[in-house]
Structures are given as C-alpha cells and as structure tokens.
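Sanity check

After download, print the first record. It should look like this:
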Amino acid sequence: MAGAGNSSFPDGLRETQTQVYVETVHQVVQHLRDGTVGGVRWNKVAMVGFSLGAVIANSMSAQYPSDFDAIVLHGISWDISWIYPAFFSGLQAPAAQIDPERWGSVPLQYQTQSTREAREAHVFYGSYDRGVLAADFYYRDFDSLGAAMSFTYHLVDAPDYRGPVFLGIGERKFDNSCLIWAVSASSDMLVFWSDDSTFCGGTRCNGQPYEVYNRYPEASNLTVQVYESTGHHILLHHTGPRLMEDSLHFLMANGF
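Expected structure tokens:
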C-alpha cells in the first residue's frame, strides 16, 4: 500500500486516499486472474484485510463484486461514531516531527502515534502481554491524511457481492472463550458489547458486528466471530492465534 512499509511516499493527502488503494488492489486482482503475475492464472482470489485493509475489502466488494471469491474482514464495523475519537486518543502527529532522525524524510502528511501510551490506548484493550508494547510501538506504521479523511466513506453496503464473508472483531465479554454466530441473514442474532476501541468503542457499538448481515444481504454465507477482552490490534492480543485459526478454517471451508 503506498505510504506504508517500504513503499514510496506519494502526496499524503491527494494520492493516498482510500479510493486509490481500492483501484490499486483491483488492478492487482486483474493481474492475478489474467496470468500477468508469475505466468499463473489464479481462478480463486480471497481478500483478507485488517483495519483499513478490511475497509478497502468492503469498498471493493461493492464496487467490484466479482473480484473476490471470499472476503475476510478483521477489526471493522460500520459504526463511524467512535472512529475519530479513537484517532484523537492516539495523539497522532507527523512522523517526521515525532522522530526526525528516523523519519525526517517522510512527508508531513504521514502521521503516527506520538507516545507508546497513546498507541496502547488506541489499539489495545483487555488481554494482551504488555511486553509486546515496545516492539509494537517501534514497528508501528503511518496513517496518511488522505486515507484518514476518506476511509469512512468506504464503509458501505455490498448488495451485489455473492461470495462468503468472515468478520472477526474484539469485545469485552469474559465468560466465553469465543462467541460464534454463523447463520443465515434472516435468523435471530445475539447482541454483544464490542470493545474494538477504533471501530466499536464504548457502549454505542452494541450489536454492530452483526451489521455485516445487512451490508452483505446476498452473501452465500456469513460468519461473525467476536473475541473477548480484545482491542483493535487483534493479532497482538491473546486471542490473535484463534483469529488466524478461525480465518484459515473459514477459507478452507470455502474452497481455499
């Protein structure tokens, strides 16, 4: 993704908006299917996305519903009321100003959390090893202003997507090891309090993870897994291995 990892850093406002990422991934999928990549034509393609990656997957399933044969969403909901307060809790500032020696060449439109404590408040909750915080803070990536200002417009309905969908998100229940509901959209649903501090904070989220049934009305099947005592950065919580196991099981059960 442009502006992340070892990629280039284009204009962080105009050239890194969420739609740019959508179009980039769409082109990659076309190349995978037509054999441009490695001379192999891939007949089945799944999209696995976390946070912004899951938002991109949601948007692509609306704009390009035939791109993916399965979608795995980690750490998103469709309740935008908590997202920007969560950004504020992270005390984000230009990375070049936070650590000039390390990131002085990064354009000012790329931001990250200013302190380890702010990073913890932003993406951690409940059951995790505090020993991971130092490494997580050191290896954290950036958010571009373009993506931060545009991604909520890509939390959308995908009425024409007909493949299977998996959603995994954290919440604050302690009495069950994992709460699973994989039923048809017309079935009754349980309601839980989610505690993914970025996409489902406080008490407003309520049954929001199950909004996926409304957003994907024609999906062939939907699986929602809600992990107790888990914040936004699911993979760095004690439930992270279960999330990966559940995601792989979902993909294998759907032909991958």
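If your output differs, re-run the checksum step. Summary of this record's structure: Confidence is low (pLDDT under 50) at residues 173-194.
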